[in-house]
Amino acid sequence: MERGSSDKKPTNSKDEQLEQFRIDNYGKKLTTNQSVRISNDEDSLKAGIRGPTLMEDFHFREKITHFDHERIPERVVHARGYAAHGVFELYKSMKEYTTASFLQESGTTTPVFVRFSNVVGSAGSKDTARDVRGFATKFYTESGNYDLVGNNIPVFFIQDAIKFPDLIHAVKPEPHNEIPQASSAHDTFWDFVANNQETAHMIMWLMSDRAIPRSWRMMEGFGVHTFRFVNKERKSTFVKFHWKPILGVHSLVWDEAQIIGGKDPDFQRRDLWEAIERGAYPEYELGVQMIDESDEFMFDFDILDATKIWPEEIVPVQIIGKMTLNKNVDNVFAETEQVAFHPGNIIPGIDFTNDPLLQGRLFSYLDTQLIRLGGPNFAEIPINRPLCPFHNNQRNGFSRQRIDIGKVSYHKNSLANNTPSTSSLEEGGFVHYEEKVEGRVIQARSESFNDFFSQARLFWNSMSPPEKKHIIDAFSFEVGNVKSRSVRQQVVDMFVHVDKQMATIIANNTGVNRPNGAQSNVTASSPALSQENTSRYPNTLNVGVLIGNGFNDAEVKNVINLLEENGVFIHYIGEQIGTVTGRIGSKIKIDETFMTTDPVLHDAIYVVGGSAIDQVKFNKNIMYYIGGTYNHYKPIGIATTGEMYFDVPNKNNIPGVIFASYNPNFAMDFLNAITEQRFWNRIV
């Protein structure tokens, strides 16, 4: 089976199941929720035409009551999210390691629902904040729902779940003034970091480009924790899960991300929605890292520590399948907001480890769904309902949808022949892995968890020069926004253990003393951690074409045809909505005006130029777009009719700026520049 191929749209049986719940109101008669037809939806029932409203107006009361209760509490974390349906196809059977039903036979397809999210901000915050991104996948398998609830960063801030409320309280807006929104650049967060130094590794990732992804379609996902595969012989293998995007891992630059947050707060959700609507389905390959149980203690890190990675050069990632997101949701509230993920939703063949962060999540996620979704029946909401039938003796509660037949609601029983009955291991019943556990009852942490800086140093060593600069800039911005000089000094003194030169520059930039202390002596690096080593493709990248009347018809057509053949999304930008006409009469429809879009919203620009009603303003707008694109290191293609806007010497020596007049293979050279995406050696 060919990896990364997407010749056909896989079927999605979960979508078929949801069909019975989809209601199209178009052309229908207005009714109450009890299906009573309504004769007047403009006026409430009154005692006289100018009299008081009557309580007996059942339609008014139903309508207002429903409106008053339309909002459910937003998630404490991961409140801002977006989702899509898809399907997972297995490349390689994993039956040697696990009995998980969807991992048995190559070619098996399993419906999935994926929610991407930001951790810190509220539901109304912007997509492009510097933050961790959630990457949660619900597999609707034939043996029940399996939830892989992860992030776009493979480690976490803390080692034990008891610290999670402290972390979130620290990073959320400060309670005395509820500022800042969706930002970690403030005193309480960095005070927490400096006084909880297990955060060091995660902070390096958070300050890196990984925290401002270009798109959810270009973002890795990680299960974070160590889980177990369990096979039919009850042999356990430790496993970590990875999602690898087919398009590679790409990010915004910080200034660009801030501008996008104002220009289009919905930038990443719009990107996902439009890609799926165009049929450019996002694809991610599923990889696993596996460690035999007998090798648990052979590494210089504890494999159960959620603040540590398993370096891919030491424990390779095996690619075993591919997920394709092929359908947008029909209703964001009913699906995206009501979906309930839980790391405890596992199936036979997958089990937990003693990772203390994971152990706490097994309680927390179920508990939070109860308060958000109104009670214990949230699993009956269509988006949460498994594809396979489910049977148990649970009853009643808010919003019960099942109508259970019969008088028996307990186990064991004789009146219903002891049904629903339990299943043996051979029948597919879930049996917890038998792990030997012994020791004193104690509140403590393993000594093997105490190395906070070695992998933070490994991450730093693995970065390219531009990535290192971005990390220093991010620290300088974040810590520079901290008002307490003491906290700023503590942070610098902490990160000297990662890299002394880095910490010294941050100290200079934030007005504190240079740090004393020695950096970690780790010299190893992991190339897999650097985005410089990722895949690059032009397809689905967005090129803004700046164009007016009088363009060169043949030249523009040749360039656009090549870009579109390679999957590039084209947006024509002009003076006003309408059409522009070429020299020999070709017409192009303008998608956006200079006022409705911005250079930060495009991955590259193609400067065609031309004539306009207000030529001075038209020229000024093009110069603004060139400047913004150039300063964010993005490709610029200059048509023969656009050279007046970029009149500089040595035109063939400007990284990522391609001139049609000086390049006989201009269209291909421009396509290659778009594929490269950023030109960090450009002087800005």
UniProtKB/TrEMBL annotation:
Q: Where is the Catalase core domain?
A: 31-419
Q: Which cofactor does it need?
A: heme
E.C. code: 1.11.1.6
Residues joined by cross-link 3'-histidyl-3-tyrosine (His-Tyr): 342-365
Location of region: Disordered: 1-24, 513-533
Q: Name one GO molecular function term.
A: heme binding
What is this protein's record name?
Answer: Catalase
Q: Which organism is it from?
A: Pseudogracilibacillus auburnensis
